[in-house]
């Protein structure tokens, strides 16, 4: 191996790491579990029992998580993933490798890296059975975002409002398709009540709606059946609950799924080029971003939550609203409140880093972020073991608020273990596997003392 090839393989030293980025990634990774854990633990429509009942702790806990964190942590994680694309390429393009130009080798390494991430995502979703896996989508979207990396920051940032509009249009078309099926089904019901003989078209309308309802609006009977499958002690029975849905998301629904993550990754690149995520802005600019973000974002998301509280307490109420309203204009609020709040959250974290307050905690969070891949899959392993039928079989057994005792325990575990691990090893276990596969060569694991 040449000297340049050795440099190309060498891990990023602790001194060369950008601590702010590790900390932001760590916050996002820990925060994502707040939204993910109900998906591991709770049956269909679990929140209908408290969604419209402000006298319960579950209502207010759900409100706080929805308002402050839902969508924001995944957005922050996507931003930092976009930054990671730039950092990976910048370092690799400096190292020529014999007869292969540095840029060409860097591109090859990057796409191999993303290809392995896609495979890891397929394993996480279809073998470990986490239906909310993001690794697959990040691998796919990362390959697309790569080609935009050299654009000016202003052009990269345009992706967010463009995708917000495109996403609103696509989601509106999606729900209008469901609405059309619903209205056609209701018309057939009226015809049946009047004693008419159904035509082939009307019979097909019943099938179309039943298929849509089964996929998106499971009733109590279907929810009970899904719970029965999840509580089976047979791995393959549990797997049958989600595998087809996950595969549909990863294939036929993929064109709808990629845009949000793509826009956020591109915005992350822009924020890196502007110096935001590396802490290069002045304290005053971070404070301004924080105040504007929380001021506008919290107002918008609180209104949106209250609107849902009034109009969508149950699936039946949502369907009734859908029948009367072809366009849900309140959906336009989501992408804007989310970005306002994620920028405010990021500004708050960066201000804490600059102030040197709670530095010990921030260092631990940075270690969690440095091992984000390992820690993310650890979430899957712990939660599937606790809740799925072939593990401790706690699926559907806990109150909503009780889930967050486990979240706190997982956070504590990772905040303790991650710094200790990195004291002795250069990478997390899965980071080491990923890197070794990317370079197709076993990487040094132990840290040099």
From TrEMBL:
Ranges for domain DUF418: 271-441
Classification via InterPro entries: Bact_Transport_Assoc, DUF418
Residues of the signal peptide: none
Keyword Transmembrane helix tagged: yes
Protein's UniProt name: DUF418 domain-containing protein
Regions crossing the membrane: 21-41, 73-90, 102-122, 128-148, 155-175, 256-277, 289-312, 332-353, 373-391, 403-422
Pfam families assigned to the protein according to its UniProt record, in alphabetical order: DUF418 (PF04235)
UniProt source species: Spirosoma arboris
Entry keyword set: Membrane, Transmembrane, Transmembrane helix
